[in-house]
Design brief:
28% of the residues lie in helices and 38% in strands. It has 162 residues and is of the alpha+beta class. It has one domain: START domain (Alpha-D-Glucose-1,6-Bisphosphate, Chain A, domain 4), CATH 3.30.530.20. Strands 1-9-8-5-4-3-2 form a seven-stranded antiparallel sheet. The chain has a two-stranded antiparallel ribbon with strand order 6-7. The longest helix is centred in the C-terminal third of the chain and has 21 residues. The protein is globular. It starts with 10 loop residues before the first strand and ends with a helix.
């Protein structure tokens, strides 16, 4: 994979999955609002994606909505976009590279071709502190991101088959 971002260093959490669809389809599931909304939160939560501007500095805005009406706004920007390969995003800045007073993480997704028309996806989060990383683990990082990745896998398979 391209070394734009180092994985597994510092306070990094990530999952590594094989998605049963071509890389172009997986990319669409990450970068088209209607698809991202379908899988990005583990059910019964959902992601209401408001804006997804795919260029460095482009705005990313969504609200996670819980089964009891809980709402968690998630606003930030994209830092790096290499179509069908790399997407790096953060809540450390808002549009115009205006620093936020608090940041939870910088996220990334790395895609590469795997055998039989499948895609290897490394999806991760970099945290500024060990405390932030532990908070993410305590929130259920592995279980939650694993469930979302499986939802992505099912969606990508259905999009690829259409």
């Amino acid at each position: 994979m391209t070394k734009v971002i180092e994985t597994g260093t510092g306070f990094d959490l990530n999952i590594d999955r094989i998605i049963d669809a071509p890389r172009s389809v997986v990319w669409r599931c990450w970068t088209e609002k209607e698809f991202l909304s379908e899988w990005y939160c583990p059910k019964p939560w959902k992601a209401d994606v408001h804006q997804l501007d795919l260029w460095p500095g482009g705005k990313s805005s969504m609200t996670f909505i819980g089964p009891d009406g809980e709402q968690m706004p998630q606003d930030g920007i994209h830092l790096y976009v290499e179509p069908e390969k790399i997407l790096i995003f953060t809540d450390a800045y808002k549009e115009g590279f205006v620093p936020q007073p608090q940041s939870f993480m910088t996220g990334y997704v790395l895609l590469e071709d795997a055998s039989d028309g499948k895609t290897r996806m490394v999806w991760g989060a970099k945290h500024a502190t060990e405390e932030g990383m532990k908070q993410h683990i305590d929130m259920g990082f592995e279980q939650g991101w694993g469930a979302a990745a499986e939802q992505l896998n099912e969606l990508a398979k259905s999009v690829a088959a259409a």
